[in-house]
Amino acid sequence: MIKIDDSDRHYLKELCSYKKDDTMLLWFLEGNPYCAAWVDDVVHPEEAVVIAADFCYLLGKVKHPDKMMQTLEENARSKIIIPCTLQWAKYLNEYLSEKVRCYKRYAIKHEPNVFDKNTLKQLIKKIKPAYKIKQIDYDIYKEVLNIGWAADGCCFFRSYEDFKKNGLGYVVCKDRQIVCIASSYNTYKNTIGVTIGTLEEHRRMGLAAACAASLILTCLDRGIYPEWEASNMDSVALSEKLGYHFDKAFDVYSLL
Fold this sequence. Notes:
The protein is 32% helix and 30% strand. It is of the alpha+beta class.
């Protein structure tokens, strides 16, 4: 498999269209530096693996199973592997059955007009006075980058200037400590991918709902759609509290 130069990403446009309107793949095609791709042929690719931040997409046809296995083992450790065709799912389930683990992620419907502002404002009002919601500024951005459980809310931007221009996020603080974050994992045009995190000892207090509600309200004011995908059923339940609707579960994989 050949690792392509960033300037050659446009050759993958047709393969990426197999997963229509996926903002991570569009983010890759746009030239984001936290992405990379390997193909069987640079100019006329029929088989590709695209890594975009924590996600790994298998695109096109399965043509070189051994080479693909080597590419995944060298580059997709700890990534969420997404087969974009039934042929790739079969490859993972059969050819790599002893090397991968299958688990579920949960798609949430894309419904731009689903949110009720009054409901979101009520979620914000419910948190205890000791907790303060703050929009991410320069100092908070720098701090978030050094917090393992929260870093995804800022780390896929080139700089604070890039985040300020293209991203958006909020944190909840208690006694000057960041205990919750709702922020943009990635952005593409007028869409952000939402990432949520809460420090374990501060969960079940409505902080994630309040922080996410703050993010969504600002998105609505700016004409941005906050796209949500859930890694577990708790995240699905939180999304429904905010006004989203569950779509479907789907299989993803990780290397053992």
